[in-house]
Design goal:
Blueprint (H helix, E strand, L loop, with lengths): L1 H21 L2 E3 L9 E3 L2 H5 L9 E2 L9 H7 L2 E5 L5 E5 L5 E4 L2 E6 L2 E4 L6 E12 L14 E12 L5 E3 L2 H8 L3 H8 L3 H6 L1 H11 L3 E3 L3
Antiparallel strand pairs: 1-12, 2-6, 3-4, 4-5, 6-7, 7-8, 9-10, 10-11
Length: 216
């Protein structure tokens, strides 16, 4: 009996904490405002606590429309912490930024807009790769690689911060978090999955809306 009461009280306490915490969050929609600044990590994204422009030490024009793009093009970014210390970060290690109420991810050293934000987000980014040309001469062993770029589609899991190539095989484990929807998806042929990837990402987001901290 005492064990039952303990479990009941523990459960009710958990529900109370959840209810208290949920009052500080809202469901994401197009009116949600990401605070402007640099997101050093993904944790800062989901808490909407970027480093503000005033805490960035730079000689660049902070009022420029493309300030963050130019800033991240540099090798390093200097941040002033709450104690006034200057901390140097490699630009390539910075997650991204928010500007003009739009969220950008620093993908392969290039900012990429995330226009479709949700529990499963979608964006397009530049992928850089080395292409080794075919050489017919058997005595020419080391052909020089040619650097090429291409636009790729990606998925961002807002629960973990992981980024995946946009294909039906990578959508599979993301949808598995919703048992009912995943069952529906699993019954589709691979050909049908390829054609309905966006549809099921939207379905997942509708059924599992993203929650973010309330704007101050």
């Amino acid at each position: 009996m005492r064990f039952f009461v303990f479990v009941l009280l523990f459960s009710l306490n958990g529900l109370f904490i959840f209810a208290q915490d949920s009052t500080n969050y809202v469901f994401y929609d197009k009116n949600y405002k990401f605070n402007e600044g640099l997101f050093l990590t993904f944790d800062q994204v989901i808490t909407n606590t970027p480093v503000g422009v005033s805490n960035i030490f730079t000689t660049l024009d902070k009022t420029a429309y493309d300030f963050f793009d130019i800033l991240l093009f540099e090798d390093e970014v200097v941040i002033i912490d709450d104690q006034g210390n200057q901390i140097v970060y490699k630009s390539e290690d910075i997650w991204g930024y928010s500007a003009n109420n739009k969220l950008y991810i620093n993908w392969e050293k290039r900012p990429a807009l995330i226009p479709f934000v949700g529990s499963i987000s979608h964006f397009m980014g530049v992928h850089v790769y080395n292409d080794y040309p075919y050489v017919s001469d058997p005595f020419y062993y080391q052909p020089q690689p040619v650097q090429k770029t291409e636009i790729r589609q990606y998925l961002l899991d807002f629960e973990t911060g992981e980024v995946y190539d946009f294909n039906f095989r990578n959508i599979d484990p993301l949808l598995s978090k919703d048992i009912e929807l995943y069952s529906e998806w699993s019954n589709l042929s691979n050909r049908k999955k390829k054609k309905t990837m966006f549809v099921y990402v939207r379905k997942y987001n509708d059924r599992n809306p993203l929650m973010l901290p309330k704007n101050n």
